[in-house]
Automatic annotation (TrEMBL):
This is Uncharacterized protein. It holds the Pfam family Neurexophilin. SUPFAM superfamilies: E set domains. InterPro entries: Ig-like_fold, Ig_E-set, NXPH/NXPE. PANTHER family: NXPE FAMILY MEMBER, NXPE FAMILY MEMBER 1. It comes from the Eukaryota. It comes from Salvator merianae.
């Protein structure tokens, strides 16, 4: 995770409706996240974090470990030009696994906010474990995604396509539509996130076939977020024994 020190304090609202309460909680969470995000701008992709150039060191190296012990890995990140990074916020995924046992667990990341991360794994089972450290997005990519997210739902618009027999109808869609026209509402039941489309004349809302994608990322930022450039960082194995 990018935010090991993030803790959510639940807010209580005694008199507000569930929708208002949820909206207030979302605002609270986003405000907390904004303080933890790496606010970086860049013009050269070579200044972004490189999985290939970064270095992982086992802090408490042993030939073998016992069940219940900790495996500690220090990760020092470098950019694509080979320079040491000096700020925080890379999106990392860290896991240990034993595919033969169908066992796996995530590690705990401490971000020292200077380009160094400490990853601690608790060794829960015996056998050979594979340690995997992945760079999902560099800190510059995380910053770009967050900046795009903050553009504002009320400013995000896109097109929805409705199929009516053999004809297609395109209408304007968005997360907050400022209009008195009749709208179609589409809700994700998992988190109650909703978007709206202006309802075409004489076409049911159920006939929407797809909506066109939109992005507030630049071409350079899109390249930065290409997982094939960044995904693998380091992978190695250790033996864990019973006590």
């Amino acid at each position: 995770t990018v935010f090991p020190d993030f803790q959510l304090t639940r807010i209580s609202y005694l008199t507000q409706s569930p929708r208002v309460q949820r909206d207030e909680e979302v605002k609270y969470i986003l405000a907390k996240l904004d303080k933890l995000m790496p606010h970086r701008t860049f013009t050269d992709i070579n200044t972004s974090t490189s999985a290939k150039n970064s270095r992982a060191t086992v802090v408490n190296h042993k030939d073998a470990y016992c069940v219940g012990e900790q495996l500690a890995v220090q990760l020092d990140v470098y950019d694509r030009a080979g320079r040491r990074k000096e700020y925080r916020g890379d999106f990392l995924q860290v896991r240990i696994s034993s595919p033969g046992l169908q066992a796996g667990t995530s590690g705990l990341i401490t971000d020292y906010r200077n380009g160094t991360y400490l990853v601690n794994f608790t060794l829960f089972w015996e056998g050979t474990i594979k340690v995997s450290l992945l760079l999902i997005h560099p800190s510059e990519g995380v910053s770009a995604l967050w900046a795009a997210r903050k553009k504002g739902y009320d400013k995000i618009t896109f097109k929805g396509k409705f199929l009516n027999g053999t004809s297609e109808v395109l209408t304007e869609c968005g997360f907050a539509m400022n209009t008195t026209a009749e709208l179609c509402k589409y809700v994700d039941e998992r988190d109650q996130e909703a978007f709206y489309c202006m309802k075409p004349s004489k076409v049911p809302c159920e006939l929407m076939s797809k909506n066109s994608p939109i992005s507030y990322l630049t071409a350079l930022e899109m390249e930065l977020l290409d997982r094939y450039l960044y995904l693998q960082m380091v992978c190695f194995s250790y033996i864990v024994q019973a006590r």
